[in-house]
Amino acid sequence: MSGTSSVREMYPHAKQPVLQAGAPLAEAHGAVVLLHGRGGSAEDILGLAEAFDMDGLAYLAPQAAAHEWYPSSFLAPRERNEPWLSSALDKVGSVVASIESAGIQRERIVIAGFSQGACLSTEFVASNPARYAGLIAFTGGLIGPVGMDLRHEGNLAGTPALFLSGDPDPHVPWQRVVDSAKELERMGAKVEAVRYPGKPHSVSADEVEHARAMLAGIFSA
Predict the structure, then answer these.
(1) Which of 54, 57, 81, 208 has a CA 20 to 30 Å removed from the CA of 146?
(2) Is 115 helix (H, G, I), strand (E, B) or coil?
């Protein structure tokens, strides 16, 4: 096995592109990192930028290798999702670092995603605690098997966190959404969890409007 192939297998997402929409980073007063779901793409999730319709924000969407951030369910033992999960978390970290390098502080950065991307968003924020502008999880929660201790260390210092999910959902049990919301609240986030009975596994217009209202509140301050 060549050294290049070995590195690619250890860090599958490292060289994947990051698409951008909205305001240029140098001119933006805030940024939103958008993480797509399994089988989706950066281009797909960037459609939320138009739906949010917020002036002055930069939207950055990294692309996952093979259109998935990790191969198994987010409820599988974590070792079954390695090294893809660690690579995915590193990729989100590199995008956040690039935004900070452009002069936008973390407290002006929202981390958001759908499904697998929502799980990755939630796990990234909990694993890298700080005061973020916000977390928006469209159908997702903390990563790990049922019965796992979801406790994370650190302080989210009032970060607004919005969980939106259907119940029942074929991939994300509502109880995991609830448990994730409770853990982030324990860490100091200001959490809202909204349950949509019978909603399909997708992002609904009402969820988009709910998220848009949150962004308007954050970035009007």
Answers:
(1) 208
(2) coil
Would you list the domain boundaries of the chain?
3-219
Q: How far is Cα 201 from Cα 198, in angstroms, rounded to an integer?
A: 9
Q: What is the DSSP letter of 15?
A: T
**pLDDT for 85-102, tens place per residue?**
999 999 999 999 999 999
Q: Which amino acid does the sequence have at 8?
A: R
Closest to 156 measured CA to CA, from 115, 215, 111:
111
The SS3 of residue 169 is: coil
166 strand-pairing partners = 196
The answer for residues whose C-beta is within 8 angstroms of residue 62's C-beta and 6 or more apart is 13, 16, 17, 18, 19, 33, 35, 42, 91, 92, 95
Length of the chain: 221
Question: How far is CA 9 from each of CA 30, 40, 205, rounded to the nearest angstrom?
Answer: 33, 21, 38
What is the pTM assigned to this prediction? 0.96
pLDDT digits (tens, 9 = 90+) for 118-173: 999 999 999 999 999 999 999 999 999 999 999 999 999 999 999 999 999 999 99
The span from the CA of 14 to the CA of 22, in Å, is 24
What single string gives the DSSP state of each residue in 24-93?
-TTT-SEEEEEE--TT--HHHHTHHHHHH--TTEEEEEEPPGGG-SSSS-TTS-GGGGTTHHHHHHHHHH
Whether the CB-CB separation of 25 and 215 falls below 8 Å is answered with no
CATH topology of domain 3-219: Rossmann fold (3.40.50)
